[in-house]
Amino acid sequence: MAAIPTINEEEARRPNRDETISSANVHGSSIKAILARFGIRAFKPNLRKAAEKLEALHTAKGMPLPERSRAELRRNLGRLHLLREQIHEIRTGAVAAALGGSGHEEGSTRNGSPSFADRRRRYRDCGHAGE
To answer: What is the largest CA-CA distance in the chain?
Structure first.
């Protein structure tokens, strides 16, 4: 008969990042959908320089993107970047925990959550005011 794992063992085995990864996929898809309305299909929002390349984009007819759509794309790219940072933090924390550390040695706070205020501030600055 197999032993039932403890809560800590189960947490170490599978970090809870499914929701964050799902959100990143949603933001990436929404960016592609906005661009598809203007006939742009070759843009890759997952690239590090995607925000820089966004400014140079033109519609299929050669006109610049409308300002509101460009602003929406900037917000979505900011959120996508933030989510990718969070996924990276989760993964590095899981690796550190597997190696015997808590993953919070540097910059930890009273409750053990590293830079929670920084993540919250970055999330708010990406257009999530009021949430």
So the answer is: 67
Among candidates 54, 49, 76, which has minimal Cα distance to 65? 54
* Residues 79/24, Cβ–Cβ less than 8 Å: no
The pLDDT > 70 percentage for the chain reads 64
Q: What are phi and psi of 113, to 5 degrees?
A: -100, 115
How much is the CA Rg of the chain, to the nearest whole Å? 19
Residue 58 pairs in a beta bridge with: 64
pLDDT in tens, 27-80: 889 999 999 999 999 899 888 888 888 888 898 899 999 999 999 999 999 999
* pTM: predicted TM-score of the whole model, two decimal places: 0.59
The token duo for 72 is 């929406």
